[in-house]
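Data availability excerpt. The first of two example chains:
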Amino acid sequence: MNNAVILAGGMGKRMKSDKPKVLLEVLGKPMLQWVIDACNDAGISNICVVKGYGADMLDEYLLGSLRTVLQPERLGTGHAVSCASCFLEEFSDGNTLIACGDSPFIDPETIKSSLELHIASKSAVTVITACLDNPRGYGRIIRSEDGIEGIVEEKDCSDSQRKINEISSGCYWFNTKKLLEALPRLQRNNSQGEYYLTDTISILKSDGCVAQAYLSDNQDSVLGANDRAGLLKLNDIARMKVIFKHLEAGVELISTDAVTISPDVKIAPGAKILPGSMLMGKTIIGRDSVIGPNTRLLNVTVGERSTLDNVVATDSRVGSDAKIGPFVQLRPGSVIADKAHIGNFVEIKNSAIGKGSSVSHLTYIGDSDVGKNVNFGCGTVTVNYDGSVKSRCEIGDNAFIGCNTNLVAPVKIGEAAYTAAGSTITKDVPDGALAIERGTQVIKEDYAKQKLKRHLDKGKALD
């Protein structure tokens, strides 16, 4: 059975981050997750992650979804793979992919095609390679008539070997049984004093085994990052790759300025993404919807023909033919139904807004269930928190909530009920009723003259 070992123990000192290097993000997605997803998409589900620096953070991120082993000391790639020997022994009758957790652009097609070559050539090891115009920093591939002789790390290269532009991606397919036989024979006789996984090639060839190389069409498959500038470059490459993928699928962009789309986002043909928009996580955009400008969505589902203008939304759903914005925040748990309108300076939190309902401006709705065709006047607040307990409001179909109404939860507004402007509603309102809650107006003659004396004097001085 085929399996994968992902090397994820690096610290990445030049990143100047407390996180392990593999948890730094490309388009909002940890580099490690890019590699895990590529393995899964290539049909590999048995995966072991070799952790080192930041092991606790890796465990917290993975939440037990994958097997992990600890590399207690960073003694090289060969040592890292050796730490997973118990895992490898469970799959000794198959093939093992060794992948780097900080090389996010390894792709499923490269993984599958290199495995096909590996099996067809009956190789003990097949190295995934690429040709770069500037191979500096990478191990060079030393080819032979029937495959490869080995890989030489740049620090150990001769002048002639440094001119070779075919380089190792750091990813390999191994016959698992042969890998287990080679690992104990690795030595540290190199400039770094480490156990190089690349040395398994010469070991296996000395045993009469075949060593092969698969030259990938995806030059980016070898790319990693050693510092923040390198990570920025990965983000730039990934951003444009994702954008062009959506353009080819029929998504409209009038400009790519400040447009960032996570690789797991799905956008239907005909949708338009305007400048300044960030679509992250598992966001889904329906056909002919318009997103932006200056909209940030994380794990948001949007239906067809909806508009989101200057919106920040997280873990929410928006139906079809809805109009949201400008300057709206949808906090987690918000569900906006078809044909609803959420307007200027409105915040929705953990609430359902019914079909055709309108929350036009300067309103907060939290922990509420709103029916269809409800109208909220300006300045309405659902008072959902009393300092210790959060409670819900329920607002029936066709209700009309007057301006500056406070609905003190838990309270129920009936169908087609009406609240008068300026009311603070603390009791349920029956269907079809009008609720008025206003104090008696008191007039104190000449009070303001003394209260506002300084203000009035300033006004006279300006005359």
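And the second chain:
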Amino acid sequence: MTAFGYTMMCEQSRPDQLVHDVQLAEQAGFDFSVTSDHYQPWLDEQGHSGYAWSILGAAAQATERIGLMSYVTCPILRYHPAVVAQRAATMGILSGGRFRLGLGAGENLNEHVAGKGWPTAGVRHEMLGEAVEVIRRLLAGEDPVNFRGRYFDVESARLWDLPDERVPIGIAVSGPESCRLAGEQADVMVATEPRRELGELFDAAGGAGRPRVGQIAIAYDPDRDAALQRAHEQFRWFGLGWRVNPELPNPASFEEATRFVTPQQVAEQLSCGPDVEEHVEKIRAFVDAGFTEVALVQIGADQQAPFVAWAERELLPALRSL
């Protein structure tokens, strides 16, 4: 049976509100939660971008059952991979084994702040490969870890506090190279598009039988027009696609790139309003593509509590009937 999760979206809510919202999601019966790890929002209208790892630590203490996952952390510029491993191990302990580390090659939007330039896609994937090796070795308890790579060096590192069980690693995929890396190195495949071929490539590279987690944004509201307006205001960047999104450097760039996106174009991509079946049909695409878990993003900071209550009452039962 497919598991359904709740997204703590750092770009659209204050950190304390995110922790409160994930408590509501746990009480409502969501199976797991994922957390974006951004330095900036996509658009000014979203208006937030708290530090994901503090939020995750607070969420681990504020909840008891729900799984937690970074979705996803980029360990190649803003963070050094050895420090990412330390954070993940600490989260494994604080969460009582409920944490999974999601990793990806990142976006210019968040990584350029380190002042190291934004590498080409091929270089980013090479860097991610090195970073994953370092992180895996540290989380496995290797002592010491010495590493000399093309992009990273690690000198006599070890993790002094490790959870009882190794933190699972997820890797975000979008094409053959990332699927190969995930199939070879990841415990979990991560994606934001319901493309069956991603799972097939993941399987062919060694990932057969492992979980695959997808994510989809929706805009629930009793008023469909209000839902569509909110989705257009805050999520119109989504339609640019993942060949464009990683390259733009700041919210102003996303504002300019989406200047001519219409509400109707947003409605064609995102389900909006109160119709359960409309939302279920969009989410079903991930289930049909073989995803074992799907995390839902409810668009709008002030709409989380109504969404969670509606999801408990109507959406989750409908999804579980799939």
